[in-house]
Amino acid sequence: MKRLPVALFLLAPLLGSDWLRISSSLDAMGTTFTIVAYGEDRARLESATEEAFEEVRRLDSLLSHYKKDSEWSRVNREAGRGAVPVSEELFQLLASCIDYSRRSGGAFDITVAPLVKTWGFYKGYGRLPHRAEIRAALAKVGFEGLILDPVSRTVRFAKPGMEIDPGGIGKGYAVDRVVAILKAAGVEKALISAGGSSIYALGAPPEQPGWKVKIRHPKSAGRTIEETILRNESMSTSGSYEKFFVAGGKRYTHIFDPRTGYPATAAVSVSVIAPKTIDSEAWTKPFFIRGREWTARHKPEGFRVYFCEEKMEVACAWLQ
Prior knowledge:
The protein is globular, with a radius of gyration of 20 Å. Helix 1 (42-63) packs antiparallel against helix 6 (170-184), helix 6 (170-184) runs antiparallel to helix 7 and helix 7 (277-290) packs across helix 8. It has helices spanning 42-63, 71-78, 88-103, 113-118, 131-138, 170-184, 277-290, 292-298; strands at 9-13, 20-28, 31-39, 84-85, 146-149, 154-157, 189-194, 198-202, 211-217, 220-230, 233-239, 244-247, 250-253, 269-274, 304-310, 314-318. By secondary structure, it is α+β, with helices and mostly antiparallel strands. 30% of the residues lie in helices and 30% in strands. A hairpin with a 2-residue loop joins strand 12 and strand 13. The relative contact order is 0.12. A nine-stranded antiparallel beta sheet has the order 1-2-3-7-8-11-14-15-16, with helices on one face. Strands 4-6-5 form a three-stranded antiparallel beta sheet, with helices on one face. It has a two-stranded antiparallel ribbon with strand order 9-10.
């Protein structure tokens, strides 16, 4: 019997049309992936959705830093001792990460893992470390220490104790792979979401100009602060509300500035709309870290950015 994705539901023709709507979800990569798709062929929709979720499962096994047998975890275990041969897929993904780091002046940095551990966000909701602990973690951080050799297709760490964290890019990469599979299967109308923080809108729902998506208020989970329409583009959001703790009356978020070792404070949430989800997810971090003015000067052409700061109160606006 064919195995269907987790939580397959709501498959029915729309009133007055031949369109079918299918919605399904899968827990993977530490979040929930959801696909809502329209089509005229039930078997094609189900088959395409299952193939897409099989790809998410594969990427979970490739990129997880929690699964000991993943290729990502093998790099973390072995690259500090010498060059580690990796697959072409992982090598190209790491090369993309280094490119984001260079273009953002180091604000995007997957070698931030030692800081994430020091601040306690791997095992819970955070702790306030001593300054000496932060300095020790910073000594292990820096994208320049991630050495890629394209000839031998190997990865090594130049600094003892280095580790890489896929949290800033893995979901976006997976969403783009899902989009490619749905397109190849002939699906033209779908909304793909990874936990709601990384979204791609393929085409548009029947008789609609695009997919309506909401940006939540960074201080209130039940409130929407902005709505927008997406069509053949992605949106990713990073917010201080995702993971944080309060110590001494101060709020500390999980989004770190890899140059200082401390949580970023220039924003409370940033949403980026871009052609590809890997780009929108990656760029939310440097925009969040560097702030509104830097973002306005450096955002790539064609990107749209919704920026929320906290002054006397939350102030949000699309950057011009």
